[in-house]
Amino acid sequence: MISQDRTSQLPDEQRVVMTAVGLTSPNGNDLESFRAALLNGQSGVRNYNIRYVGDTFAGVCEFEGTKYQSKKDIRRGTRAGSVGIFAAAEAIRRSGLDWANVDRSRVGIYIGVTEHGNVETENEIYSIKAYDYDTTYWSHHHNPRTVANNPAGEIALNMGITGPHYTIGAACAAGNAGIIQGVQMLRLGECDLALAGGVSESIHTFGIFASFKSQGALASHADPTKASRPFDIDRNGIVVSEGACIYLLERLSDAKARGASIVAEIVSYAINTDATDFVLPNPERQAQCVKMALDRGGLTADRINIVSTHATGTNSGDSQEIQALRSVFDGCETVSFNNTKSFIGHTMGAAGALELAGNLPAFQDGVCHATINVDNLDESCEIPGLVINQPRELNRVDYILNNSFGMLGINSVLIVRRFS
After folding, report:
1. Which pairing describes strands 243-251 and 193-200: parallel, antiparallel, or unpaired?
2. Count of other CB atoms within 10 angstroms of residue 45
């Protein structure tokens, strides 16, 4: 049995559980295939060409878009909307809900995004260039495509959901932030079911690639599958990727009442801000965020079994995060640390949610997936328990802590546990 944390002492009406997960990633379109790829060392990064920037690498999702959308709706909408619809619909399909009879006014949609609208604006400008920039040829779909609530709104339209929907702009901490928002709204009684997580269409905007390239932060390597290499001494930047991961969240009392299968229970979370730089991370504030989440959950650091790191493959970012983690987990010999971006690149707004999903099966199989592409560990990234290149079998996994940080100094931490 798991010894009690603070959440376990709450009434069931205030405890929130994950009862299904839907996703699309560069190396899998459901949790089973995604997990298998992580355990088998299978990268989803490939060669990619983007307008103006040229040849580079990216993590690209390949899923059956017309499974839940018509071709017309795909053309009218956005890529962020499509990946979100696929993930949300898959979560509902896997949930065991009698969806036809669910009161959809009591369903909330909370989707984390890093950015939205750049793709559509770039595409329209590129298109009207052929007409001497005559805006007569500008798409009348542009405004609904680019409003900030679009990804969540497209899910609502597609699934007939009439409860609250909005996106949470939290840079690359957004996947965690979407889940956290869902938890809060369930506890407030604002909804009875929450579709919560994150989405990214970032590979379709050349501006993101160009900006990282100008910063010297866009990954390069002879082999695309080895381009994303957090913690390696030869890491040289970020691989931009797309994806989506959306969870169905419910109050424990409701999940029990319908006999739902419970994936995990959300134990604690924290969000704070560095307030020190536009881009450079602050390890002191990151450590503070981790400690806040532990304290809120009534947990000591040694209770955590797996820490899913945010590390993106940049020189300063990876070492700064490890510095923060060393300060929190010093002396915790049973904690394992891994990284999912080494497999799929950086899925931006979806990152926190996807990276958590890849670790959730550890509650059942007791395995911590590895960080791949670490040929020569950077001394500044050394930490006891770092799982490199081969999965590690653990005696038991009860708690997983998920780090997810973003530009302008936003930090998020989410802690989930095995439900019993």
Report:
1. antiparallel
2. 28
- Structural domain containing residue 228: 16-257
What is the β-pairing status of strands 410-417 and 193-200? unpaired
26 assigned to some structural domain: yes
For 8, the token pair is 């376990």
DSSP 12-32: GGG-EEEEEEEEEBTTBSSHH
Strand partners, 197: 111, 246
Question: What DSSP assignment string belongs to 129-198?
Answer: GGGTT-GGGS-TTHHHHHSTTHHHHHHHHHHT--S-EEEEE-GGGHHHHHHHHHHHHHHHTS-SEEEEEE
Rounded-to-integer distance, Cα 125 and Cα 326, Å:
47
Instruction: Mark whether 396 and 308 lie in a shared domain.
Output: yes
- CATH number of the domain residue 315 falls in: 3.40.47.10
Boundary (domain end) residue, out of 257, 288, 323: 257
- Residue 2 pLDDT level (bands cut at 50, 70, 90): low
Number of domains in the chain: 2
Residue 65 lies in a domain: yes
pLDDT given for residue 4 in this prediction: 76
Q: Select from 106, 96, 102 the least CA-distant residue to 260.
A: 96
Same-domain check for residues 32 and 135: yes
Residue pLDDT, tens place only, 80-104: 999 999 999 999 999 999 999 999 9
Compute φ and ψ for 46, nearest 5 degrees.
-140, 170
CA pair distance 220, 235, nearest whole angstrom: 9
Residues 96 and 51 in one domain: yes
Give backbone dihedrals phi and psi of 284, rounded to 5 degrees, phi first. Answer: -65, -45
Beta strand 240-241 with 410-417: parallel, antiparallel or unpaired? unpaired
* C-alpha radius of gyration, the chain, whole number: 20
